[in-house]
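Narrative summary of target 7.
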Amino acid sequence: MEQRIGSSSKPVEGAGFDPAFIPGLTAPAAKSEQEQEPQAAAPEPAEEPEQEPEAPEAEAPAEPEDEEEAPADGPVFEASDRRAKFVADHRGVRLSLDEEKCEFRWDEIAAVETESPRFGKRFTITVHTPDRRWFPIEIEATARARFKEWEGRLDAVLDAYFEEA
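Modeled conformation, tokenized:
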């Protein structure tokens, strides 16, 4: 009599056993030994880095290459807390929250809206684009008295750079 070693039933598949299971999708096929790259067998010798010619010791002062380094001519508004940051200057508006960032030029902005809560210290600034999208950011102020100061400084920047068409 023949006996099999091991289970005779198929392994059960499905979302109950695998949270990443999607019916109809199969896992990518593993590369066979013949398809594997031949470079793994014979490593190439490392190339030596070319030596750069020595620069003269007395160089002209470096000019700012990026607009970000160039000083702003007009008013600048900047508000930030431990997570969020809002900057409005001659280049446009920049929002950042943790590692996420977005930037808008002045011609990409339809409106900028501010909202100060009745209670609490979270000041909300919303940037609206012409294609009816909006990007809100909340900045926590140290005191509620900062809201009027921030609104006044932001209005000065908007008056200087933002032009309604």
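The first helix runs from residue 146 to 161.
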